[in-house]
Each structure stands twice: as C-alpha cells, then as structure tokens.
Amino acid sequence: MHAWIVYRPRAMGEAPIFHFNDERESIVEEVAGRVVRAARDPLLLLNDAAYNEIKRLEAHPGKERGEYMRFRELARTVGRMSEADRVSRLDELARRYARDVAGNFNPRVFSLSTKVLPRALTLLLAPKDFSLAEEGARLLQRHLITQGPVDTLRSLAQKGTLVFVPTHSSNLDSVVFGFALDREGLPPVSYGAGKNLFANPFLSYFMQNLGAYKVDRRIKHEIYKEVLKTYSAVLIERGFHSLFFPGGTRGRSNVVEERLKLGLMGTGVEAFTHSLRRGHPQRVFFVPATINYLLTLEASTLVEDYLAETGRNRYIIEDDESTQLDRIFTLLRKLSRTTGSIVIRFGQPMDPFTNRVCADGRSIDHRGRTVDPATYVTRDGEYVVDEARDAQYTRELGEAICRSYARETVAMPTSLVAAATFAKLREMYPGADLFSLLRHREEVFVPSDELARRVDDVTAKARALEDAGDLVLAPGVRHATASELIDEAVRAWSGYHTRPVLTRTDGGYMIGETNLVLYYQNRLAVSGLGYHPSRKG
User: Fold this and answer.
1) Residue bearing the bigger pLDDT, 203 or 307
2) Are 446 and 514 spatial neighbours (Cβ–Cβ below 8 Å)?
3) Do 155 and 290 fall within a single domain?
C-alpha cells in the first residue's frame, strides 16, 4: 500500500468530505507525483506550458508580471536543462497548480449554510412574512421537488463514491442541487468552480469552505489539464463524493445535453482502476440528473448568446441576469407561486461501464446478469490503466448519460406551451430559416381555442412519452387542461421576462419575444416534441 493513502474509520452516514482537510496536503502531494510519473516527455509539456502562458499573459502583462517573466525564463532555458532538471521543474509546476486547485471544507460553515439557506430563500420568496423563515425547508418542499431513486443513492453512498452528473442550465444549479442533496440525506460533494467566482468575497467564503475546488479556465496547457483530471481521480479514489456538469458551461440553447465533455468523467474509470491496483477497491457510481425550471434565470441572455454564435453575431449579448440581485429576487418570488417550479430528477445510477447499479452495489448488465466491474479493467490477471480502452468506456458512459437525460427531462408548462406556440410560428412561415422566424415578433396572433388545441396535442404526445418511460411530466401536468397550462405559463412569464413571451389580447394571444419561445420549447426538442434547432425538418 502506498504511504500517501489515508484510511480513517468513519461513522455510518458521515460524509467523507468532513475529513477533507486532514487529507488535503497528501492529496496535493499525490496529484503532483502522479502527474510527474505519467509524463512521457517533460520537455514537450514544459514548452507547451511556457508557450500558452506567455500567450495568455501578454494580453495583461501588468496584472501578472512576475508570472509572465517566470514563463519567459522557462521558455529560454528549458532546452538547455538536464532531464532531471526538467522533471524537477515539472514537479514544481504540478505541485503549485495542485495546491491552487485544492479546495477546503469547514464543517461549521457547512452546518451554518444548511440552516441559513432555507431561511434566506424563504425570505426572498415571502419577504413580508418573517415567521416563515423558521419553516424554510417546508416551504421549499413545495417549490423544489426531488424525484428518482433517492433510497438507492443513500445506500450506494455507503458503498462507494457517488459522482453526480446533472444537466446545466443556470448559475443557480449548484445552489439548488446542493440544497436538494442535503434535504434528501445525501452527502455533500466536492465540485469544480471557475476561479473567477472566487473573486467575489461572499461567494468565495462559502465556496472555499464547502468543498469547491478552483478551475482556472484561462489556463490551456496540458500540465494544468492533467492536474485537474488527476485531482478529480484522487478525490474519487479516496471516497469524496463529487459533482460534475459534464456539458461544460450552461446550455445556452436550453436543448438538453446530447454531447458531453468527457475529460473529468474519464477520471471515474481511472480512479476505480487505481483503487483496485492498491488493493482497496473503491466502487464508483455515476448518477445522471436533470435540473428542470419553470423559469430559467438567465434565459434571455443565454438564448441571445446562443443565437449570436449560431447567427454570427446577429444578436447583441446583454449582461447575465445571474449577476443582478433584483432579477434573482424576482425569479424566486415568481417560482414561489407554483408548486414544483424546480424539479431535480435523479436517474438510474450506473457504474463507469454503463451497467445499472442496484441498492446493494451490484452491477447489472443489459442482459440482467450480475457482473464484476473489475473485469472491465483486467488484463492477464492484472488491473491495467489503458488510455484507448478507457477512453472508449468513457465515450459509452457519456452516451448512456445523455440517454438518461432525455428520459429524465421534466416537461414544464412553459416548455409545453412554448412548443405549441413555436409550431404555430413555423406553420405561419413555412420554409423560413430560424432567424427569419425569430424576426416575427408581435406579428402572429393565435386564437385561444387554436392555442388550446395545439397545447392539448403536445401534452397528449408528452403523456404518451411518459407512459413509455421516455419523458417525465411536471407535477400536475398530466391531468391539467390545456387552458390551465397556458394560464400557468403566461403567469410565470409575465412580470419576469422584460419582453412578453405571450400577450393576452381579445380572443387569443400575440406571440411576443420569439427568442424566448424558442428557448423554452428547446427543452423538449430531444424528445421530439418541438423544433430541434440543430436538425433539419
């Protein structure tokens, strides 16, 4: 057994992350050591780091002058270094990056946050009734709904490392997901957060103390990328439950993720294999999840950002709503009027090889047979890390997670009504491309009975998909009338989005902000209930 590995007895139900600070320094040492040992060509890695950092830092030489000069010096001298000096310099960089990335966990801050968050959100939802602050969790129960195999996840948390991989729509995702985990008796997780977020003193205080590790997205070279991936693998090996958003950034179009970034996800296979090799197997369980909103905080900005890229800057990008406190308050108060306005739905947990996992930890293959995950990484009786093989496992895992996203997407009234509305827009202008359609703001009138018929048709198809296990209807949707769904969607949009999405007029509705109609209907595009912006037809 390697000397760096630390095993401590933990009380049943106690989250491993509560012991993170005891292991932090040995984690840093292990990450740096593993990066150096895996390096095949230190000269290539150091040249790559020097080139990319000089290029990055030249844009702002005054802010990080010392760092800039260090990499200039490295570029000048690395070619003349001995191999031992190159390895030493690589070790120095890996160690420095690992220490900068490594997070922290303060149980007292965690305890405080779990008490303060429900009360704080309650006061935002009902600011005139301070007595509700003592009943925050009960109030949030009505507005934040958690679904899926929660009992199975609680059991698996005692048998291995949970790796949550949810969809990503909003900067609120981490907050609501963390609250849902705590409320359901699931363990707190370690997660990566953009280093820029740590510049905010308020956010930094909580992130620094609640398991977040820093990800500097400005740094592009391979040494840093390897440090991040190795850090993730070491945490998983040691049993620290984790959270990744494998889609990367927030989904700007609101289409449920169909392709994932696989870098950090690949650390699941690596971690499992390393744990087998050291003689202390640590099972790894991936948990897909969807985070579903009746209203998305940054919908206007995200869809305009998406259209700007798709249409080559035809649209101007505005400030992100997540930076505006008044927008957050408005959103929360709007959501408080609707039961189930946020639904987090956990999918079926799976091992890194896409096998379904039971509550007792057994892996079940697609034929219903119990399988030993260790056999997937065994060669000639030895546990082997094989980059090509493991990359294929990870690609298959990514595809399985995307299929889970499609099944576990929750159809909200706003998305159903938007799908019906956008279908009308397309029918009015057959053959028009996306940008031509979106120009027709405040031009299309839909009679009330026609919109109700269209919503009823979309909802009937959604019910059929739910019956087949390919979609989930939001609470109350299955038995709601079309008129009730339209009223709920219009009520949600009105007063939150600056530009009306649908405006009631005599006898019907005027289609207003077409960008937002597209954005909300896109949530159902993968399910075939609406127009898919990336597909023809």
Assistant:
1) 307
2) no
3) yes
Whether residues 252 and 162 share a domain: the answer is yes
Which domain range does residue 281 map to?
144-189+241-294+339-408
Question: Token pair for residue 200?
Answer: 């905010």
Q: Whole-model pTM?
A: 0.86
Question: 3-state class of 196 per DSSP?
Answer: helix
| Rounded Cα distance, 527 and 468, in Å | 12
Same domain? For 286 and 384 the reply is: yes
Picking from 349, 374, 408, the residue at the C-terminal end of a domain is 408
Instruction: Indicate the burial class of 320 (C-beta count within 10 angstroms; 0-12, 13-18, 19 or more).
Output: middle
Q: Is 42 exposed, middle or buried (0-12, 13-18, 19+ CB in 10 A)?
A: buried
Q: Are residues 420 and 486 in the same domain?
A: yes
Do the Cβ atoms of 331 and 382 come closer than 8 Å? no
Q: Which of 212-216, 508-512, 525-529 has the weakest average pLDDT?
A: 212-216
Same domain, 375 and 423: no
Averaged over 500-507, what is the pLDDT?
94
Looking at residue 439, its pLDDT comes to 93
Question: Per-residue pLDDT tens for 134-157?
Answer: 444 455 566 789 999 999 999 999
Total domain count for the chain? Answer: 2
Measured CA angle at 268 (ends 262, 270), to 5 deg: 100
262 with 403, same domain?
Answer: yes
Q: Using CA atoms, how far apart are residues 38 and 291, in angstroms rounded to an integer?
A: 37
Cα angle 256, 214, 343; round to 5 = 30
Among candidate residues 385, 408, 431, the one where a domain is terminated: 408
Distance CA 39, CA 43 (A): 10
Nearest-5° Cα angle at 206, 160 to 290: 50
pLDDT tier, 10 (very low <50, low <70, confident <90, very high otherwise): very low
Query: What does the block give as tokens for 446?
Result: 């839909």
Q: Torsions phi, psi of 52, nearest 5? A: -70, -40
Q: Which amino acid is at 1?
A: M
CA–CA distance, 299 with 74 (Å, rounded to integer): 44
Three-state secondary-structure class, residue 242 = strand
State both tokens at 398. 């990514």
- State the Rg of the chain over Cα: 25
- Over the stretch 214-239, which tens digit does the pLDDT of each residue have? 888 889 999 999 999 999 999 999 99
Q: Report yes or no on 215 lying in a domain.
A: no
Separation CA 472–CA 145 (nearest Å)? 13
In sequence order, what are the residues at sequence separation of 6 or more whose Cβ sits closer than 8 angstroms to the Cβ of residue 151? 359
Residues 451 and 373 in one domain: no
